[in-house]
Amino acid sequence: MATRQLLFRTFYQLGFTPWDGHPIATSLRSLVEGSDDEPALTPGRALDVGCGTGDTSLYLAQHGWQVTGVDFVSKALNKARAKAAAAAMDIDFRQADATRLSTEGVGTGFGLIVDQGCLHAISGDDRDKYVREVTAVAAPDARLLLVEFTPGGSIGVPGIDQPEIERRFAEAWTLVSTGEQPYPANRGRSNALRHYILRHNR
Hints:
Blueprint: H1 2-14, H2 26-33, E1 45-49, H3 55-62, E2 66-71, H4 74-86, E3 92-95, E4 110-116, H5 126-137, E5 138-149, H6 162-169, E6 173-180, E7 193-200
């Protein structure tokens, strides 16, 4: 965990943040704005895990959600707060670790939890901690959106695949849908980045 935190802090210090500035994920738009297959979720409390500089948090707030964004990189959070202030949006940005959410003042009862690229960078036992913490802060019948690279999908990222997601979340979550997530850096590789929508069973 300490190595991962140092790596991302270094990236932000150098200004190397290729994950910033991309369009809002189509899978998130479907949840928030609705689609031909499913109506939009009713806005409530949302948690943006690994929020970075806050683009997803701002999107959720613009669509009526009460948003908490968490990241462990203070420089990213400072940029996120500046964006929210410029847009006159009331978003609660907090410095917190995804494997310690329940003990770092993030709160509970989130009806929508969004993770676009956090879990796939976590490895080892910390993945079990992540699942435990996300489950602890979720509301009954919450939705969890994971947008993650598959193993080998991105250099320097361990990645995670569907069987592992289903196994790790099996106790408290049900996988509702999954699919390829369009992403500029895929460079023609299918399934390099995928989304997974899970429903909290409690």
